[in-house]
Amino acid sequence: MFTSTTGRLTSAAVATVAGLAVLAPAAQAVEQGPAEPMAPRLTVAGYTKYLKAQSTPEARKALKRFLALTRGQQTVFVKDLQDRRIHKALLGKVAAPIGKPVSITDPYNKEVRFVTQATSKVGKDKDRTTTVSFTVTQEIFRIPVTSETLTISYPTAGQGPKKVTGKAKVTNVNAAIAIKDNPRVVVNGSEAQTLWVAIPQVKSFGKPVHKKQHIQRTAPGFRAQLTDLG
Fold it and tell me: Could you say which residues of the chain have pLDDT below 70?
């Protein structure tokens, strides 16, 4: 297992690359937010109801583990869900050679931690397509809350054009925010990037949070970052 030390990234990443400009329409569409008036804040009862209404495996697992917490832990859990500062701090950075898995745990406080993971492999197809996947996850009491993943694939053999592709997905069981799944991914040369927008679903969360996630191919392998844009 390849591990790397990382500190939390700063919001200096606001100076984004020009390629992100084309992501703006998708971000604006998400920023329209919920159609109904937002509740003042998220409660334990409200979060339990939210999880029960979801049909995903992640929500079912979260519900089971959330109900197993003490009442005090549930109160802290829900408080952390709607803390904008915590979501802004969900950041990650890795650099590794192809074929070496990466796992980094970055504690935020005694109950919240951020887990950064990356995998990479070379395919057995004729083009020896290399795929890199980069995920950053927020956990509360070891329960995954939000995971943002970006994947890039590119051929390393063959005589044809070296087409690079990218895709992104989010897994989110935080009822305080909504994040659009499968956002637009911009591929530019040897890198792929996407923009995430967390839209408040309760007033206590405050303003939306914008993040950029990108992976860049390097000579020995790759480097990847999830940065805060404000």
Answer: 1-35, 158-161
CA angle at 75 for the pair 209 and 84, rounded to the nearest 5° = 10
- Supply angle C-alpha 33, 38, 44, rounded to 5: 115
Amino acid at 217: R
**How confident is the model at residue 14, as a pLDDT?**
32
pTM of the model: 0.82
Break the chain down into helix, strand, coil percent, rounded to 5. Answer: 25, 40, 35
Phi-psi group of 58: left, alpha or beta (phi > 0 → left; psi -120 to 50 → alpha; rest → beta) = alpha
What is the distance, to the nearest Å, from the Cα of residue 225 to the centroid of all Cα atoms in its chain?
Answer: 10
Indicate the length of the chain as a whole number. 230
Identify the pLDDT of residue 160: 58
213: Cβ contacts below 8 Å, ≥ 6 apart: 134, 136, 148, 150, 168, 193, 194, 195, 196, 224, 225, 226, 227
User: Is there a contact between 49 and 63 (Cβ–Cβ < 8 Å)?
Assistant: no
Asked if 78 and 62 touch (Cβ cutoff 8 Å), the reply is no
What gap in Å lies between CA 153 and CA 151, rounded to an integer? 7
Contact partners, residue 161, CB within 8 Å, separation at least 6 = none
